[in-house]
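Supplementary Note 3. Input sequence used for the single-chain structure prediction.
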Amino acid sequence: MRIKIFHANREGLMQAVALVRIPDGMSVDDALERAYAATQNIEGCWSQGEQIESLFHKGEMMDNPDYSPAVTVLAPNRERDGRKFGHRSTDVGDLMIVEPDGQVWSVDSFGFNRKEVLEAA
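The predicted structure, written as discrete structure tokens, is reproduced below.
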């Protein structure tokens, strides 16, 4: 199973930012929780790879505690004045799509809310 994560921007448009590989046999609820946790910026930046630039020592690299090899970043990180900025944490209103079955879930204040998807005729 895989979870594709879409972040909403300020205009409400969705952008695919990550694909999280989930271990076999995990329930959908646990898979959503794992994907959510894997796309949080706690002590580093989930979208910037195994090494990140230190905030305190410009040019010095350090291990990235928020990196996970289970996460594939789908959208490029932003850059300003030569400094890379990673994606924000997954948050309320963002969407998660369970692959391969296509279930769509939104991130809620507490947990996740399954969304009904209408098929085009």
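DSSP finds one helix and ten strands in the chain. The helical segments are 28-38.
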